[in-house]
Write a structure and sequence with these properties.
Protein name: T9SS C-terminal target domain-containing protein
Pfam families: CBM96, F5_F8_type_C, Por_Secre_tail
Number of domains: 4
Mean pLDDT: 86
Keywords: Secreted, Signal
Distance between the termini: 68 Å
Largest sheet: 8 strands, antiparallel
GO cellular component, one term: extracellular region
Radius of gyration: 30 Å
Low-confidence stretches: 4-17, 583-601
Number of helices: 5
Oligomer: single chain
CATH class of the largest domain: Mainly Beta
Strand content: over 45%
Organism: Paraflavitalea soli
Helix content: under 10%
CATH topology of the largest domain: Jelly Rolls
Length: 685
């Protein structure tokens, strides 16, 4: 009897262990092989979008402190499994090649748990976007039983949608919440459901924020149809599946820590609260190509941080919370291409507020460019890149964080001179005297000349001093009537500062700069203030000793109505140049570099012999136990070997490196531990 009991216990343990499937990222390379080894199928657009390669990659995530999966989706180049072209799909799933634990037959209860993170600027399709599905194999309808669906709208929503298949019983959208709290943050999803027909089915879902365990979505229904007539089994699908429309952009959705069980939720436990808070590293990044994040703090424009892909970011932790008023960035190849990025500010490195979105570099400079915004208090600053005008690379050579205290001041300047000019028969008219109470911009909508108008303004910024954190041009105006809406107005720098409102005409107007400083869109016929951030231009003029700031406003879209503005002679709501100064502006470079040097000294990397021929020994010294990755790269940035991808104890570790198959040349060893990264060159003869 004891032997039978022991055998029964052993079989029960074995059955329990098998009733669980786990999938976690283990580092770049062989991602599909890893996914398929756990019984998941891959549905990808790879054969259509061959130039991109595999549409699931792996990357180290600094928030979770581990490797995660990145699902890539492209609305133009991708399709649905190299077939339907009106939608794009990148999903992993259970299926016919899966173990029994991933195939849920009628009457069985399944438990799922996983993490995901939508980009901070994620855009759902106006048609459909599913990031999770429960689908039947066979049965009376192809629609999923349940989906997690980000939904377009105002506001955007996160929806839970049910479909019972053919006939009655479909509930449609059973629950929805605002989508905003899900963007830019890691969440953990838990799903429990019973695959039964009619009222015998059940479904339960809870989604919590990883950083603090806050519940963002919760729904339970203990009586709903969760089975298709004629089905073989149900299975889960995870990824990005969306209908194509005009608003979609390339997306990267991160996933981590998949767990599936048919036995108990305890086999897929939550680890919320078990993850340590982020360490205040001076600078970290979402990834790199061997040009590491620390390079932006070395005061050397010849080094850089680089990472490819929309949404790649570089993040800074200040020594203490500060009033953050902007960033200064020098861009790699910044004189030949423009780069687009957002700036986020936060208190904890997990939850973020968008301080400024859609900023674009000048495309004309290799030096630091200033991007100011309204002051926001925080300790962490994240710059999220959206590639450049040539390719998807985000490459910065230097970065400074602008901070200011209450000792600064705001100065509002009225123009010394303002006037508009008009072509055609009025090309010789000085409207600054004949129409002093109004300013006008207009691009003629017909071929006949005589209706184009440009507005000129000149300010004296000598009283602002040389240390300014923000310069914003403000004009009060509107479209004359409702025949046009949403008219973009560009502001340009004007090098000539000798013109006056009493003498300027279309015939003698000074030339504008080649590129617009910024654009504002005049929406309708209701008068209001519109703003243009011209901080970088004003700073450069003051730095060159030029205190007179001359500007021109031009319409860029042809309209029948005029766009009219108050002039300084109108009497109220006149033009303004609002300048903010700070006597305590600092880049935090000294604090960041000092902290970086202090912490980097705890992490050491060496190798011998170097140069070497057949084999080499790498010595790693860790001050703290933690997740460690050691990899080798060739000089193109391609990873050629992974030596360590595990959690290591503090202390010294000796790792053999035998790259027999690698050709002679220069390689880069890259060591990452607890968010810190150092590199060393390695020469194979």
């Amino acid at each position: 009897m004891k032997q039978l009991y022991a055998l029964f216990t052993f079989l029960l343990i074995i059955t329990t262990l098998h009733a669980q499937v786990k999938l976690s990222a283990d580092g770049p390379g062989d991602t599909y092989e890893l996914i398929e080894s756990k019984g998941f199928g891959v549905e990808s657009p790879d054969c259509r979008h061959t130039s991109f390669g595999r549409h699931v990659t792996e990357i180290f995530d600094n928030t979770l402190g581990k490797n995660v999966f990145v699902f890539h989706s492209h609305p133009v180049e991708d399709d649905d499994r190299c077939g339907a072209d009106d939608r794009v799909r990148m999903e992993i799933k259970g299926g016919n090649g899966s173990s029994d634990e991933m195939q849920h037959t009628q009457g069985q209860t399944a438990y799922y748990r996983w993490k995901f993170k939508l980009d901070a600027n994620f855009i759902p399709s106006s048609r459909f976007t599913h990031i999770f599905q429960i689908k039947a194999i066979d049965g009376d309808a192809g629609a999923p039983l349940m989906t997690i669906t980000p939904r377009a709208g105002n506001p955007q929503k996160m929806q839970i949608i049910h479909s019972a298949g053919e006939g009655s019983g479909s509930l449609g959208t059973v629950h929805q919440v605002d989508l905003a709290p899900f963007k830019g943050t890691w969440v953990e999803a838990y799903v429990k459901y019973k695959s039964s027909e009619g009222s015998a089915g059940t479904f339960e879902i809870t989604i919590k924020r990883v950083s603090d365990g806050a519940t963002l979505l919760s729904y339970t229904n203990n009586s709903l149809d969760m089975w298709r007539t004629g089905a073989s089994y149900n299975r889960g699908k995870w990824g990005v599946y969306r209908g194509k429309d005009a608003v979609l952009r390339d997306e990267q959705v991160r996933f981590a820590d998949f767990c599936i069980s048919e036995s108990s939720a305890s086999l897929c436990p939550s680890d919320i609260g078990s993850e340590p808070p982020p360490i205040c590293q001076p600078v970290v990044a979402s990834g790199d190509d061997g040009n590491v994040a620390a390079n932006v703090l070395d005061n050397n424009l010849s080094t850089r941080w680089s990472a490819t892909g929309d949404g790649q970011w570089i993040q800074f932790c200040l020594s203490s919370p500060a009033s953050i008023t902007g960033v200064q960035i020098a861009f790699y190849s910044g004189n030949t291409r423009t780069s687009t990025f957002d700036v986020l500010v936060g208190d904890d490195g997990i939850n973020w507020t968008t301080a400024s979105a859609g900023r674009v570099s000048s495309g004309t400079s290799l030096n630091l460019e200033t991007f100011s915004f309204s002051a926001i208090t925080g300790k962490y600053v994240r710059i999220v890149g959206h590639g450049n005008s040539v390719n998807a690379w985000n490459s910065y050579t230097e970065v400074k964080i602008q901070t200011g205290s209450g000792s600064g001041q705001t100065i509002t300047l009225a123009p010394q001179h303002d006037a508009y000019v008009r072509n055609g028969t009025a090309a010789g008219t000085t409207h600054g005297t004949t129409d002093a109470n109004i300013l006008v911009t207009k691009l003629n909508s017909t071929a006949s000349a005589g209706n184009d108008r440009h507005t000129y303004l000149r300010f004296d910024a000598g009283s602002a001093g040389s240390t300014i954190t923000s310069a914003v041009l403000r004009l009060y105006g509107k479209i004359d009537d409702d025949r046009s809406t949403n008219v973009p107005i560009n502001v340009y720098g004007v090098s000539n500062t000798t013109w006056t409102e009493s003498t300027i005409t279309w015939n003698n107007k000074p030339a504008t700069g080649a590129s617009a400083l910024q654009t504002a869109t005049v929406t309708d016929a209701t008068a209001r203030y519109y703003s243009w951030d011209i901080t970088a231009y004003v700073q450069s003029e003051l730095a060159a000793g030029r205190t007179l700031i001359s500007l021109a406003l031009l319409s860029t879209v042809a309209t029948d109505p005029r766009i009219t503005w108050n002039s300084k002679e109108t009497g109220s709501n006149g033009p303004q140049l609002v300048i903010t100064t700070s006597t305590t502006l600092q880049s935090q470079r000294q604090l960041l570099v000092a902290k970086a040097e202090e912490e980097a000294s705890e992490l050491r990397l060496s190798s011998f012999p170097n140069p070497f021929r057949g084999s080499n020994t790498v010595v790693v010294n860790l001050a703290k136990e933690g997740y460690t990755q050691l990899a080798a790269y060739d000089m193109t940035g391609r990873q050629v070997a992974v030596l360590v991808n595990a959690r290591l104890a503090a202390g010294a570790h000796r790792i053999p490196f035998r790259p027999e198959a690698l050709p002679a040349g220069i390689y880069l060893l890259r060591l990452s531990n607890n968010g810190q990264t150092i590199t060393q060159k390695l020469v194979k003869e």
